[in-house]
Amino acid sequence: MNKKGVLFSVLAAAAVVSAGVFYFSRPAFNADALVKNSELGRQGFLLPVTEVVSPQYKIKAYLLTDTTNPIVSLSFVFSHAGTVAEKEGQAGLSKMTAALISEAAGGLDSQAFKEKMENYAISLGFGADGDDFSGRLLTTKEFAPIAFDMLRQTLTEPRVDEADLERIRKQMLAGLESQNEDPGQQLGLIANRTLFGTHPYGRNPLGKKEDIESFTPREVKRFVADNLGRSNLIVGLAGDITAEEAGRILDEVFGSLPKRGAADETPAVTPRLSGGFDAHDENLPQSMAFAAAVGTRRNADDFYPLYIANYILGGSGLSSRLNLVAREKEGLTYGVYTGLSVSDKTEMIVGGFSSTSGNFNRVMEIFNEEWNKMGAEGVSAEELEEAKNYLIASYNLRFADISAIAEMLVYMQKEKLGIDFLQERNRYVSEVTLDEVNRAAARYFTPDNLKIIGLGNFKSD
After folding, report:
1. What is the Cα–Cα distance from 122 to 226, expressed in whole angstroms?
2. How would you list the strands of the sheet with 133-140, edge to edge?
3. Which H/E stretch holds residue 210?
4. In whole angstroms, what is the distance from residue 16 CA to residue 341 CA?
5. DSSP 282-322
6. pTM of the entire structure?
7. Mind giving me the DSSP string for 399-421?
8. What is the pLDDT along the chain (461 residues), one digit of tens a residue?
């Protein structure tokens, strides 16, 4: 079966790994009710995606032209320019840079820059996760020339005023302090260190206090110059824009960037799963758990079979096997989940739950039982059919706005999903067989491919 991967961690209902931090809150939902009367669920992608190459600098982008509304969305990433690009003494610099370069640019200070964006209804922002430095722009067709010029200035004429830097510095330091008061973030940091050690994925994604306190405007501008280049740029454009317009915009916005950006220098890493269960004692009203296992590559032949098996086990909200037992039948937790996490340098199955300390051991026992049952027995034909129906019907709900489509166009390129992915993805799901799902389940849902890390009241257990 010829299948291409899907970037679950970016487009699923809740990201389970983002910027190297593990998140544990996953809202419960009824999957069947979500798509039952959805018009989007019955539609396919009829508009083609095309590749655009700019005339002067030969910058490539995926484009989906849709003239339904006079709106244009641009999304882009600079690969390998996230926290993995931070050198010694730079922990947190990628996030500080992302915050600062959208504050002011060129001849406009922070107040003037924001007023101009508001006056022309422009939305512009940047972010940095564990792997990449990203940006997005949303504008009306009428004011697109102004919007794209403002974007160009943020990348090529960044203005880092001391007052803005100090304000962002205080916000980042406050974020570090708040980690100490948030059990979910505490558990995430413990999980990072446990699973990845000294690898960049094991770092605190918000950075280090001493490094953040030392950053200067010069360092921020140097990070932009050293890491944001045409060589590591991936662009997606969607909305009321032609191929000719897109090519011209690519040159105007990105053409003056340095030719070379951040290089891929980070080694691959396999999460360390030895030890079974790690208990970390903390006096909390609720005890929490994070689960991790080795997963599969997004373009591997068994990605979709594993994707479906995971959906049945813990990815389908209230109707998942885990929730049906731990929440609905025994009433021990408000929710338990699993999901697939794909990053540049590792692939995992992840999961989590929380409960009172008195119920924690029983919930963990259920988690292990259902995990092992999935591996030993697989899924039924009925479960497979229901899962496929939902995953196909709900897919288009992810793209209810043009910005989500532009973002997906970026990741289609980054993950080499193919230019026809929007049209073909549902076929990839529909062609998965029962044997394929159960082979994947037997391979990945095994007792020795599971690590659970707990934070809570365990001393009396």
Report:
1. 27
2. 50-53, 60-65, 233-239, 71-78, 133-140, 123-128
3. helix 209-214
4. 7
5. ---SSEEEEEEEE---TTSTTHHHHHHHHIIIIISBTTSHH
6. 0.89
7. GSSHHHHHHHHHHHHHTT--TTH
8. 333 332 222 222 223 322 233 222 333 334 344 334 434 444 557 889 999 999 999 999 999 999 999 999 999 999 999 999 999 999 999 999 999 999 999 999 999 999 999 999 999 999 999 999 999 999 999 999 999 999 999 999 999 999 999 999 999 999 999 999 999 999 999 999 999 999 999 999 999 999 999 999 999 999 999 999 999 999 999 999 999 999 999 999 999 999 999 999 999 999 999 878 999 999 999 999 999 999 999 999 999 999 999 999 999 999 999 999 999 999 999 999 999 999 999 999 999 999 999 999 999 999 999 999 999 999 999 999 999 999 999 988 888 789 999 999 999 999 999 999 999 999 999 999 999 999 999 999 999 999 999 999 987 54
Residue in 29, 59, 15 with CA at minimum distance from that of residue 339:
15
> What is the count of structural domains for the chain?
2
Segments forming the whole domain that contains residue 339 = 8-42+268-397+424-456
Give which of 379, 377, 375 is closest to 447, Cα–Cα. Answer: 375
Are 360 and 437 members of one domain?
yes
**Which tokens in the block code for residue 312?**
């049945």
Q: DSSP per residue over 16-31, as a string?
A: SEETTEE-------BH
Which run of H or E residues covers position 455? strand 451-456
SS3 158: strand
Looking up residue 274, the CATH number of its domain turns out to be: 3.30.830.10
Query: Are 239 and 272 contained in the same domain?
Result: no
Domain end (from 190, 223, 254): 254
**Same domain assignment for residues 233 and 92:** yes
Per the domain annotation, does 416 fall within a domain?
A: no
Buried b (16+ CB within 10 A) or exposed e, 25-37: ebeeeebbebbee
What does 215-278 look like in DSSP terms, one character per residue? --HHHHHHHHHHH--GGGEEEEEEES--HHHHHHHHHHHHTTS-S------PPP-----TTSEE
Per-residue tokens: 275: 């030890």
Q: What's the chain's length in residues?
A: 461
Burial class (CB in 10 A: 0-12, 13-18, 19+), 373: middle
